[in-house]
Specification:
The complex is a heterodimer of chains A (410) and B (147).
Chain A lengths: L17 H6 L5 H7 L2 H11 L11 H9 L6 E6 L9 H7 L1 H15 L3 E6 L4 H16 L12 E6 L9 H8 L16 E3 L2 E7 H5 L1 H7 L1 H5 L9 E8 L5 E6 L4 H7 L10 E5 L8 E2 L10 H6 L8 E6 L4 H15 L5 H18 L5 H14 L7 H21 L4
Parallel strand pairs in A: 1-2, 1-5, 2-3, 6-10
Antiparallel strand pairs in A: 4-5, 6-7, 8-9, 8-10
Helix pairs in contact in A: 2-6, 2-10, 3-4, 3-6, 14-15, 14-17, 15-16, 15-17, 16-17
Chain B lengths: L6 H11 L9 H12 L4 H11 L3 H10 L11 E6 L2 H4 L3 H12 L3 E6 L11 E3 L2 E3 L4 H10 L1
The chains are: A alpha/beta (410), B alpha+beta (147).
Bound molecules: flavin mononucleotide, iron/sulfur cluster and FE2/S2 (inorganic) cluster (FES).
Chain lengths: 410, 147
């Protein structure tokens, strides 16, 4: 069930060092890269069907094209903020194959015509940021990066400092400009992002790390994996009540339950499966009864009323209280709202406090109505999709486990 | 004595200042260096950064207070951060927190934090910023008594 494309070198000892990386095929795609024109590189990415792996799943090539269509200074910003609860895949790349990330960044810069890249990494990942910095230093020494390289790329690591919202791409750019991490209003027409006014591609670590394989082996080789609409692989992950938590790369489209059994060794302590939060905390929860035909691709999980998100599955066993689980998540969102929009700032605070009454079993029917109506006001009237996502989380719990909430009403 | 960066940090600043199109972008990197150097961000460090980046002091201050990892007060004790988010909670983070509170709160500052991206090692905490995963009360005793 495991398919190793991005994770191919993860288990090789010292895989993060240049010597070992070179022996195991790193930077081999660069020769092929430079025989292509930049537009041809974008075309290959487009044909491969590569989708963004930061959670949204939008086509990667479209964003590359938008940035490429502008002249002048451009930037490639790699999103290594990885703060979505249940998600810990990008750190595997940073720790075990940083040279794969550098190789992919060179391709993205070349394709869109940029010479400058920043890697925005969450502040807590200091250990991985140090490993990545050594890899970057090695790449400069070997003239793979810098002024003496075949194509000039400079990479700078920029450390965040503890703010979930900085993973949102426009908040990330605000943070990278030296501001508070407040998301920006979204334009109504397709546009690249802008860093100090210059067109910028913001993209997830794993998306970029998928690029060298495609450059080296072609679009069809990538499409040989996964489904028609979700081609390739993802570093899916398991945590929560699971026997073998971890990150295991697999093709899109595999059965979720089979994945949980084979890769995760099933629910911990032989307990029964109650529910799965399929792709990081912000994707709506799905009860076990709905998972029989669930496949790990964008379309299948969407059709079930949830989303693939980051592919980080949180497994919940039969003993878990859904009221407590939702309280845990709402406390998180309350803590992490950036506070710019009233419905989000006030709403996350209100639902968090309302859940306390359910925990104490002192809630009223009115409190349940409050949960539903606040969730409604958070959906669609805010600067970024943080608040609508919280709304989806609440609705998922209430839709599938309302009885547990009703039991807490006096 | 008013704040200044040490030689080592000045060398680092010389390298990174060329990497950004505008000085304002140096605010986060400089706050990090200031915190590393002094264990927290002093008011005169923010003053220094404000002059260095040619941004108002209030801007630097508002940035420093937005991010939870920046400390504006001198830490009195070593810090243990315990993750409390769902995957850790499902694996007993509450007991871990109670164990720490009952035995170690006089020697360490124990704070709860949100998901640290280490959910496969739940429950987890950090000590001086370093991750410790798959915690049990016994393991905590071993690690903390050895430290
Ligand atoms: C609240 C919020 C948090 C996010 N956090 C992350 C994150 O930690 N890492 C990430 O790659 N994308 C995150 N995203 C998605 C980014 O906005 C952006 O879509 C992504 O980095 C684009 O990369 P991709 O196209 O390669 O997926 C977040 C989005 C939102 C709304
Ligand atoms: S929706 Fe919430 S997190 Fe997003 S900008 Fe508004 S207040 Fe900030
Ligand atoms: S929930 Fe604790 S590290 Fe992710």
């Amino acid at each position: 069930m495991q398919t190793k494309i991005v994770s191919k070198n993860f288990e090789i000892p010292q895989s993060h060092t240049m010597d070992v990386a070179l022996k195991n095929g790193r930077y081999a795609s660069l020769d092929r890269l430079f025989t292509n024109k930049p537009q041809e590189v974008i075309d290959v990415i487009s044909k491969s069907g590569l989708r963004g792996k930061g959670g949204g799943g939008a086509g990667a090539a479209g964003k590359w094209q938008l940035a490429s269509d502008h002249d002048g200074i451009k930037y490639v910003v790699v999103n290594a903020d990885e703060s979505e609860p249940g998600t810990f895949k990008d750190r595997q790349i940073l720790a075990h194959d940083p040279h794969l990330l550098i190789e992919g960044i060179i391709a993205a810069c070349y394709a869109i015509g940029s010479n400058t890249s920043y890697i925005y990494i969450r502040g807590e990942y200091e250990e991985f940021s140090d490993i990545l910095q050594s890899a970057i230093d090695e790449a400069y020494e070997k003239n793979i990066l810098g002024i003496n390289a075949q194509y000039l790329v400079d990479i700078t690591i920029h450390r965040g400092a503890g703010a979930y919202i900085c993973g949102e791409k426009s908040a990330l750019l605000e943070s990278l400009e030296g501001n508070r991490g407040h998301p920006r209003l979204k334009p109504h027409t397709p546009q690249p992002e802008f860093y100090f006014g210059e067109p910028t591609l913001v993209t997830n670590v794993e998306t970029i790390a998928s690029v060298p394989f495609i450059i080296e082996n072609g679009a069809d080789a990538y499409r040989a994996y996964g489904t028609d609409l979700s081609p390739g692989t993802l570093l899916f992950a398991l945590s929560g009540n699971i026997t073998n938590p971890g990150v295991y790369e697999a093709e899109f489209g595999v059965s979720m339950l089979e994945y949980i059994e084979t890769m995760g060794g099933g629910v911990k302590n032989g307990k029964k499966l109650k529910a799965v939060i399929p792709g990081g905390a912000s994707t709506p929860i799905l009860p076990a009864s709905m998972l029989k035909d669930a496949r790990l691709d964008y379309e299948s999980l969407k059709s079930l009323g949830s989303a693939l998100g980051t592919g980080g599955m949180i497994v919940l066993d039969e003993d878990v209280s859904m009221v407590k689980a939702l309280k845990n998540l709402l406390r998180f969102y309350h803590h992490e709202s950036c506070g710019q929009c009233t419905p989000c700032r006030e709403g996350t605070s209100w639902v968090d406090k309302t859940l306390d009454k359910f925990i104490a079993k002192t809630a009223t029917q009115e409190d349940l109505e409050i949960l539903k109506s606040v969730s409604g006001t958070m959906n669609g009237k805010t600067i970024c999709v943080f608040a609508p996502a919280v709304s989806g989380v609440i609705n998922g719990f209430l839709k599938h486990f309302e009885n547990e909430f009703l039991e807490c009403i006096v | 004595m008013s704040f200044s960066f040490n030689n080592d940090n000045n060398r680092k600043i010389d390298l990174i200042r060329k990497r950004y199109p505008e000085k304002k972008a140096l605010i986060l990197p400089l706050l990090w260096l200031a915190q590393k150097q002094e264990s927290y961000i002093r008011e005169d460090a923010m003053q220094f950064i404000s002059e260095f980046t040619e941004m108002p002091y209030m801007h630097v201050y508002s940035v420093a207070t937005f991010y939870t990892m920046f400390r504006l007060k001198k830490p009195e004790k070593r810090v243990i951060e315990v993750c409390r988010t769902l995957s850790c909670a499902l694996n007993g983070s509450e007991e871990i927190k109670q164990h720490l509170d009952s035995k170690y709160s006089d020697k360490f500052e124990i704070v709860e934090v949100e998901c640290m991206g280490a959910c496969s090692g739940a429950p987890m905490c950090t000590l001086d910023g370093k991750y410790i995963e798959n915690l049990t009360p016994n393991m905590i005793d071993e690690v903390l008594n050895a430290n």
